[in-house]
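re: ur question from yesterday

yeah so i grabbed the chain u mentioned. its 210 aa long if i counted rite. heres the sequnce exactly as i have it in my notes:
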Amino acid sequence: MVRAPLTRDEVLTVAAALVKQHGPQALTMRGLAAELGTAVTSIYWHVGNRESLLDALVERTVADLGAIRPRGATPQERVVSVARSLRRRLRAHPHLVAMVHERGLTERMFLPAQRALVHEVHAAGLRGARAAEAVRAVQFQVVGHVLVERNRERAPAQCPGEEELWGSQDPVDEAAEDDRALARALASPVDTERLFTASVRALVNSLLTP
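ran it thru and got these structure tokens back, copy pasting raw so excuse formatting
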């Protein structure tokens, strides 16, 4: 069976799948050619060298992520919606995010979210340095939270676990003794999405208060 002519889009699709599976460091032109069943020279013909390939993947990633459309009746609600959308996208594309970071183009990936945030902080009445500070604070909150989530997911079980620290009959300190609901809550699994929404909402309300 004769193979259909190789296309640039096919090269990028397979390269993106390899990055997603193994990370950007594992992406080589020889390995990509083997995956596509073609010669390395054919890869160079369509996408150039490895750096050009990664840059093309970055462009495609940013395009695939698309524009962020804020939702809500107030600037505060819309900023929270932007933060939640950005978090979901970062969590859905961890290896592609690593690829973007490797190429030093992280700011470019964040540009759609940043534009949406700028629009909303302006709607809230902020200008200049204060507006910039609000935009960056939200971005840092999102990225920091995602990093903590990923580290928790990849980390081995902790000993003693939260259940042992906070769920025993003998509380570890007087604060837990006085607040058993607190101890039970700290011993339960973390609802990361709910925690993120609560923390970013508190941050946004403080930043966007006139």
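noticed a couple things. DSSP finds twelve helices and no strands in the chain. also The chain has two domains: 8-63, 67-207.
anyway ttyl
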